[in-house]
From TrEMBL:
This is ABC transporter substrate-binding protein. Residues 308-428 are annotated as: Disordered. GO terms for cellular component: cell envelope. Keywords: Metal-binding, Signal, Transport. InterPro entries: Bact_metal-bind_prot9, ZnuA-like. Residues 342-353, 387-408 have a biased composition (Low complexity). It comes from the Bacteria. GO terms for biological process: metal ion transport. It is found in: Cell envelope. PANTHER family: HIGH-AFFINITY ZINC UPTAKE SYSTEM PROTEIN ZNUA-RELATED, METAL-BINDING PROTEIN HI_0362-RELATED. Residues 331-341 have a biased composition (Basic and acidic residues). Residues 358-370 have a biased composition (Polar residues).
């Protein structure tokens, strides 16, 4: 009886052990099923647009164009009335930069305020880093074709890593952007081949890279250039040297930075007006009505060409031939089509009706706009000939306009805001 009872206990204990083992095994298997692992991965994968904050609207506009509907871009400085060199960000600006998934900066000392509060883990795309530029180099990198291409590739790479599911879309936008950039470079290169030995001088080296890309020689007096580059005042002897090269017509045009107006620049532009040397006005920040970075630059190039050779690419014989249907293709290359009007406004070159994506982050009520996708077509930038009946200046854009009246360098202040705080959203 006792032996039989002990056997029963052993059988019961064995049964309980097997049951417990099966239960534990089943639970372990349930926790590590591939299906549940995939569900967890899907739940953490980002599907919303990437939050991008740019220090300046030049690079913010490029980020918006390349990111399309998959990014939300905010530009801290996006008015021509604010100098990014001396900009002091508000607490809200610093907060937006710190919370951004991707921060887009210029670098080279131009916008050090944008990155000095960020941590080492911040995802920063910097034009200076892309180009190997350092503080002390000319920081106006957006006017360099090499910098634009380098930044476009760097931004696309950053977007693709942050939102891998949209990698194909990002690559497609980059390809279309490169085609558009190349169209601008092609007609600019053609102009350069037909116009050699051109020289210019500048009140401030804002367009240095652009003028170099166009083949112009920089004839700005060295003493003046060095003093302005360091933020100092030009010596009287340097101003006299500047006036002399203008009066002697040793330069083909004068570049005037509309965001760096002072007594010296007014003196120089006045001398240019009296000597009938064309003055091309260029701002540092992209005007709010420009839809893309390249559209703005294409406008400036057209103004430079207008100053040197206004008839270039605007042969009326070609227009007559196209009207007869004999040479329409050539005419299309030199005149604007229905969706690319011959207006001097940079926005008209896109032909898409799309608004710029960069928004004024310094205005609390401003909303972050997202760019409409243009995946079905690229933008072709061309020579935009001025109409003989409307040869008007574009002072309201503070860039790309040409005049010979020697007026002051701050013609844009009629419509510019008093600070970066209260400004319209260019995306609206």
């Amino acid at each position: 009886m006792g032996i039989r009872f002990m056997h029963c206990l052993r059988y019961a204990a064995a049964a309980l052990s097997v049951t417990a083992l099966l239960t534990v095994t089943a639970c372990g298997t349930e926790e590590s099923t591939p299906a549940d692992s995939n569900k967890q991965q899907t739940a953490t994968e980002q599907t919303s647009p990437i939050t991008v904050v740019a220090s300046i609207n030049q690079w913010g506009a490029l980020a918006a164009e390349l990111g399309g509907e998959d990014v939300t871009v905010t530009s801290i400085v996006n008015t021509t009335n604010v100098d990014a060199h001396d900009f002091e960000p508000k607490t809200s600006d610093v907060a937006k930069l710190s919370k951004a998934q991707i921060v887009v900066a210029n670098g080279a000392g131009y916008d050090s305020w944008a990155t000095k509060s960020l941590t080492s883990s911040s995802n920063i795309v910097s034009a200076a880093s892309v180009m190997g530029a350092v503080e002390g180099d000319n920081p106006h990198l957006w006017f360099s074709k090499d910098a634009r291409v380098g930044m476009a590739e760097a931004l696309t790479d950053a977007f693709s890593k942050t939102l891998p599911s949209k990698k194909a879309e990002f690559k497609k936008r980059l390809k279309l952007w490169k085609q558009s950039e190349q169209s601008m470079e092609d007609w600019a290169d053609d102009f350069m081949k037909n116009h050699t030995d051109l020289a210019y001088a500048a009140t401030e080296p804002v367009a240095y890279y652009l003028m170099a890309d166009l083949g112009f020689k920089d004839s700005t007096p060295k003493g003046y250039a060095q003093s302005t580059a360091s933020g100092g005042e030009a010596a009287p002897a340097d101003l006299q040297s500047f006036q002399k090269i203008i009066e002697d017509r040793d330069i083909d045009l004068l570049i005037n930075n509309t965001q760096a107006a002072n007594e010296a620049t007014n003196l120089i532009t006045g001398a240019a007006g009296r000597s009938e040397v064309p003055v091309v006005k260029v701002s540092e920040q992209m005007p709010s009505d420009s839809k893309t970075l390249d559209a703005w630059i294409n406008q400036i190039i057209n103004s430079i060409v207008d100053a040197v050779d206004p008839d270039y690419g605007c042969d009326t014989d070609q227009d007559d031939e196209s009207a007869d249907g004999t040479d329409a293709d050539d005419a299309d290359k030199t005149t604007s089509s229905d969706d690319k009007s011959g207006s001097s406004s940079a926005g008209d070159t896109s032909g898409t009706g799309e608004k710029s994506n960069d928004s004024a982050s310094t205005e609390p009520d401003s909303s972050d706009a997202t760019n409409a996708d243009e995946e079905d077509q690229d933008i072709t930038y061309i020579r935009e000939c001025k109409s003989s009946s409307s040869n008007t200046s574009t002072d309201e854009n503070s860039s790309g306009s040409t005049n010979n009246d020697g007026s002051g360098a701050d013609a844009n202040k009629d419509d510019a805001q008093s600070s970066g705080d209260d400004q319209p959203d260019p995306g609206k």
